[in-house]
Structures are given as structure tokens and as C-alpha cells.
From TrEMBL:
GO terms for molecular function: oxidoreductase activity. InterPro entries: 4Fe4S_Fe-S-bd, 4Fe4S_Fe_S_CS. PROSITE patterns: 4FE4S_FER_1, 4FE4S_FER_2. Residues 36-63 form the 4Fe-4S ferredoxin-type domain. It comes from the Archaea. Gene3D superfamilies: 3.30.70.20. It comes from Methanobrevibacter smithii DSM 2375. This is 4Fe-4S binding domain protein.
Length: 63
């Protein structure tokens, strides 16, 4: 089950307290930066939950 990103909570990478850490730590490349936003590539997500555990805004959850 891939993750989902709540764009209202996320607030764009430029406003992220950890500057898009979720994109940086995703070993599968399932989270990418696209026009300053975080976008999920569901077919690459392996359900490791690192992004969920490390999002300071709690903007990432299971779909």
C-alpha cells in the first residue's frame, strides 16, 4: 500500500523544516520533488514507512 501526501499539511519543500527529508531518505525513489512539491510514485513505494516516521508536519500517511 503506497503512501499519500496531504498537500495542505506538507506546505511545499521550501517551507519544510527539514527541507524535503522524505525525498532524500526514500531509497526506492518513490518520493520525488516536482515544482517544489513532494509527489509519490506509487509503483516504487515498498511500504518501508521511513517517510511517514520522518515527516515533521505529519503530512504523509498510508493511502
Amino acid at each position: 500500500m503506497a503512501v499519500k501526501i496531504d498537500s495542505d499539511l506538507c506546505g511545499h519543500i521550501e517551507n519544510c523544516p527539514v527541507q524535503g527529508l522524505c525525498v532524500k531518505i526514500c531509497e526506492q525513489g518513490a518520493l520525488i520533488e516536482e515544482d517544489g512539491d513532494v509527489t509519490i510514485v506509487p509503483e516504487k513505494c515498498d511500504d518501508c514507512d521511513l517517510c511517514i516516521q520522518n515527516c515533521p508536519n505529519q503530512a504523509i500517511s498510508k493511502a
